[in-house]
Backbone:
């Protein structure tokens, strides 16, 4: 246990497209552009250059702090975010924060929420649970599902960088098809991560019919903040799944984190949407649909798709997956979402690769 | 007020009177009656504003308790057997974070082979997870220990596990006295956490600690356990003043003064053992006594060495067994007996400063040295595994064997040696399969043929 | 010390019977201990429960191998389980059956024992009539109370009223009285 260091100076980003400039009207500005931002995770942490997770966590927590007037307690899973933010005796957290284990952050968050109810403080103090994709989609899934079905008043945020980055880039159930990780090497004709495996935590969350499920990326930070603020307007379990590129694990240029996140969305590989009580409610449409190759090429984890004659079959499979997402979620203006509940569409047998 | 009541119900009432704020549980036999009762009380509003959280696993149960306790709530849960192992990771975490959670363990065997009956393999497997471990000899002690446990836990910021033998105690109905709400309130103040997740004063709990400080953190945890050796007798004394009832503590001596043979045991076997000791003393004047071990972690080494004194023979009666090693409690007893006489100490030894110090490696047990110094002969007796009843008849036979000097160093009470021999013979012929299935087939308890 | 072993099948209230017996003894100022034989028995499986009663605090926690009384809630167990194993020579045997001891094929046992201590009562039928359900446990306790004088019918009724409410309590008490009356009749027969 240590107290966060005193902050003596603050930097405010201004004028960038991502952050939203001071030139915008007050209500259009991002939380980060405001002088009153909480700096919930403050400078001095030890994330890598270009870390999408550090960026995402900062936006998420500051937005949650704004939405609650600073009344947030965070429960964190083991993982990069925990390791780079709390090297003893230092801490980057300027909000009450607990790390317990890898697979139990949703349950710890549930416990905090239960204590707040017992103490009569649940109306004022809110709880955010957070972890990476390993801590959420794999080892924490049972605790997450339990937290959802009990209706506990917790916003759980998954920062999805699509593999176990903290341990050196091993495959998780959120690793996309054909991606190379340390445990899915594209050797002996293998495609990298196998096609037809993995699971979608947002869709699983929707199956619990919880009040609010949303996906977002660190490319559209105003959207991310808006979703956090919207999430905090609900009571009960809420789930936010944020795509956060990892330059180390993805083999991408740290300076290109935002761009790569945007490409994930603009190719259709990562659908950005909101769902209310289990039903799809809104979709962030693709502005200009791009071929998946534009997303894949800048990432060394997909280099085997393009080297030595490449694997056009795999690129085609990924393109087909993106196209299916576009159809399924209605990601293009002209493509209406399929009739009915998204889960029913999935149940009809339309399973991605 | 005395009532005729089931052990589990009495424990639930005792916990309820401690005014818990968050109770979480995942059902496992034989813990269920306790949490069912608490759940009913919460539902009926009797414990308001207490929250009862039905979780999806024992890992979640302990995790909810961790979150709740860190957020300032008095947190309680209960489990057993596989459930205790399933929460193993969170047990270490709760103690490492210094969260004063109280938990009941309804002791039960660990599989495979799966077995729902009583032994203490579960809590013994978790003996070094950093929790204080108390073992109840009967249901009165079990319920009293729960009230004491909250005091010990919160005073020291340490989680406490109250171990009571599954079924033998949890399901037994007997006359018990649950302390009144007034008595508990007088004994147990409101929980004042040393660390608290609160937006008004943000703290970071659970930071990463590297080689530069990890050893120190562990030594400090040890020092806290050593403090518990002083705190438990004091707290138990206060409890006695309020309830008029001596209950719990580090250990007790039963007819040890003139005993040359002393049986060290913990848990529900003690009652039957004491009956047997009385019988043998009456019938043949055997100088036998018992040491009732109540606190197993921290291990009261000095107190135990003192309690055993200069007995010639010590029999450690254990309801768990470390395969490939032997008796778990025995190893701890041996370490206690290896204390030099001055360290074993008289009543005037200076305890607190000694306890605050880091352990001295020179005190490590050395079995050879123990024998050389003419210390008592140590016997391990493994009994009651997987629910096998420990009877007076068996204990009588065991003690007579010991008095005759015929007791082996490692002895299994009521072992069906022929079953073991047959299976070993089969293994020698290279035709052995899974032991459990082969044995059941031999005993005609399953159909012949592949199982 | 007086110890009772109750044999029955899951669903007959055997464990409850042992608990009620101990509670009735407690009401009479005695020390008592009740516990089930522990298993994962389902409805219909053979089950066992025990009760010890004494004037001194009870420390023993072994299963009862040498009972002073055996209660058999389901007579079909007679041919599967050694229900009378370890029973003291002057011990009590109470069997839930519409048939006489002779008809149950226990004549020899009957003669070896104190004949007045070996009794059958149709507890399930009595319970069905009084309670609407053939749960024989409390009726058997009524019979045992009369047979052994271990507890009084009055204390049994007190603990039944504490444990059950309304018609369940009254029905069970009526069953206990009726079963006790039948035992008394047999004794005078």
Residues:
């Amino acid at each position: 246990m240590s107290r966060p260091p005193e902050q003596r100076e603050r930097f405010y980003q201004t004028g960038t497209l991502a952050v939203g400039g001071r030139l915008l009207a007050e209500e259009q500005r991002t939380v980060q552009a405001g002088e009153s931002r909480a700096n919930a995770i403050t400078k001095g942490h030890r994330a890598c250059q270009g870390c999408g997770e550090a960026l995402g966590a900062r936006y998420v927590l500051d937005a949650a702090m704004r939405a609650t007037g600073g009344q947030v307690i965070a429960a964190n899973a083991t993982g990069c975010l925990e390791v780079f933010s709390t090297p003893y005796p230092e801490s980057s957290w300027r909000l009450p924060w607990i790390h317990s284990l890898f697979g139990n952050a949703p349950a710890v968050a549930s416990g905090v929420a239960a204590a707040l109810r017992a103490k009569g403080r649940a109306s004022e103090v809110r709880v955010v649970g957070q972890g990476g994709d390993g801590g959420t989609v794999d080892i924490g899934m049972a605790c997450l599902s339990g937290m959802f079905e009990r209706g506990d008043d917790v916003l759980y945020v998954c920062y999805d960088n699509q593999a176990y980055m903290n341990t050196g880039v091993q495959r998780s159930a959120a690793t996309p098809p054909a991606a190379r990780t340390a445990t899915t090497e594209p050797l002996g004709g293998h495609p990298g991560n196998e096609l037809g495996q993995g699971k979608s935590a947002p869709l699983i969350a929707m199956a619990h019919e919880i009040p609010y499920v949303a996906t977002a990326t660190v490319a559209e930070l105003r959207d991310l903040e808006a979703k956090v603020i919207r999430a905090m307007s609900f009571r009960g379990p809420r789930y936010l799944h944020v795509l956060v590129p990892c330059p180390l694990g993805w083999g991408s240029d740290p300076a290109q984190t935002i761009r790569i996140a945007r490409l994930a969305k603009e190719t259709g590989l990562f659908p950005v949407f909101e769902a209310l009580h289990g039903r799809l409610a809104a979709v962030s449409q693709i502005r200009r649909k791009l071929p998946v190759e534009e997303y894949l090429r800048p990432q060394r984890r997909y280099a085997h798709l393009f080297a030595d004659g490449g694997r056009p079959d795999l690129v085609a499979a990924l393109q087909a997956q993106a196209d299916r997402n576009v159809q399924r979620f209605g990601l293009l203006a002209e493509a209406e979402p399929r009739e009915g509940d998204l889960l029913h569409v999935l149940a009809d047998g339309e399973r991605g690769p | 007020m005395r009532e005729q009541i089931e052990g589990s119900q009495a424990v639930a009432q005792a916990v309820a009177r401690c005014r818990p704020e968050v109770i979480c549980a995942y059902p496992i036999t034989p813990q269920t009656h306790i949490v069912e009762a608490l759940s009913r009380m919460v539902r009926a509003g009797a414990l308001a504003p207490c929250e009862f959280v039905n979780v999806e696993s024992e890992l979640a149960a302990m995790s909810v308790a961790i979150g709740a306790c860190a957020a300032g709530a008095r947190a309680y849960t209960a489990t057993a057997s596989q459930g205790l192992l399933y929460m193993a990771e969170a047990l270490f975490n709760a103690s490492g974070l210094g969260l004063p959670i109280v938990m009941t363990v309804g002791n039960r065997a660990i599989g495979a082979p799966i077995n729902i009956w009583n032994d203490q393999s579960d809590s013994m497997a978790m003996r070094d997870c950093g929790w204080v471990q108390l073992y109840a000899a009967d249901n009165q002690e079990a319920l009293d220990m729960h009230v004491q446990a909250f005091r010990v836990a919160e005073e020291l910021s340490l989680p406490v596990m109250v171990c009571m033998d599954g079924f033998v105690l949890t399901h037994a109905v007997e006359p018990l006295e649950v302390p009144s709400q007034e008595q508990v309130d007088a004994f147990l103040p409101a929980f004042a956490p040393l660390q608290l997740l609160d937006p008004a004063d943000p703290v970071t709990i659970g930071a990463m600690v590297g080689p530069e400080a990890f050893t120190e953190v562990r030594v400090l945890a040890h020092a806290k356990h050593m403090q518990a050796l002083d705190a438990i007798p004091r707290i138990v004394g206060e409890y006695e003043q309020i309830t008029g009832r001596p209950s719990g503590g580090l250990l007790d001596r039963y007819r040890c003064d003139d005993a040359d043979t002393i049986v060290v045991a913990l848990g529900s076997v003690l009652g039957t053992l004491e009956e047997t000791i009385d019988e043998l003393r009456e019938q043949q004047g055997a100088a036998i006594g018992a040491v009732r071990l109540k606190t197993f972690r921290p291990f009261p080494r000095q107190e135990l060495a003192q309690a055993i004194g200069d007995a010639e023979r010590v029999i450690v009666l254990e309801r768990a067994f470390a395969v490939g090693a032997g008796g778990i409690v025995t190893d701890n007893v041996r370490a206690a007996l290896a204390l030099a006489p001055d360290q074993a100490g008289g009543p005037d030894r200076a305890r607190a400063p000694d306890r605050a110090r880091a352990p001295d490696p020179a005190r490590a047990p050395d079995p050879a040295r123990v024998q050389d110094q003419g210390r008592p002969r140590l016997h391990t007796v493994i009994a009651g595994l997987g629910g096998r009843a420990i009877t007076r008849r068996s204990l009588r036979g065991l003690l007579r064997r010991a008095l005759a000097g015929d007791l082996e160093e490692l002895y299994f009470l009521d072992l069906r040696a022929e079953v073991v021999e047959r299976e070993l013979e089969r293994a020698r012929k290279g035709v052995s399969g899974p032991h459990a299935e082969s044995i059941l087939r031999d005993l005609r308890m399953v159909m012949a043929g592949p199982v | 010390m007086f110890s009772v072993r109750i044999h029955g099948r899951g669903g007959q209230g055997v464990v409850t019977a042992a608990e009620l017996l101990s509670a009735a003894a407690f009401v009479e100022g005695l020390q008592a201990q009740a516990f089930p034989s522990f298993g994962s028995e389902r409805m219909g499986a053979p089950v066992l429960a025990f009760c010890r009663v004494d004037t001194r605090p009870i420390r023993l926690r072994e299963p009862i191998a040498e009972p002073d009384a055996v209660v058999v809630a389901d007579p079909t167990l007679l041919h599967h389980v050694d229900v009378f194993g370890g029973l003291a020579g002057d011990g009590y045997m109470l069997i839930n059956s519409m048939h006489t001891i002779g008809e149950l094929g226990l004549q020899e046992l009957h003669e070896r024992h104190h004949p007045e201590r070996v009794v059958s009562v149709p507890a399930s039928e009595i319970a069905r009539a009084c309670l609407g359900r053939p749960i024989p446990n409390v009726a058997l306790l009524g019979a045992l109370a009369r047979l052994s004088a271990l507890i009084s019918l009055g204390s049994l009724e007190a603990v039944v009223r504490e444990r059950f409410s309304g018609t369940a309590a009254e029905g069970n008490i009526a069953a206990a009285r009726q079963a006790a009356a039948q035992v008394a009749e047999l004794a005078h027969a």
Residues 312-329 of chain A form the longest helix (18 residues). The first strand of chain A starts at residue 72 and ends at 76.
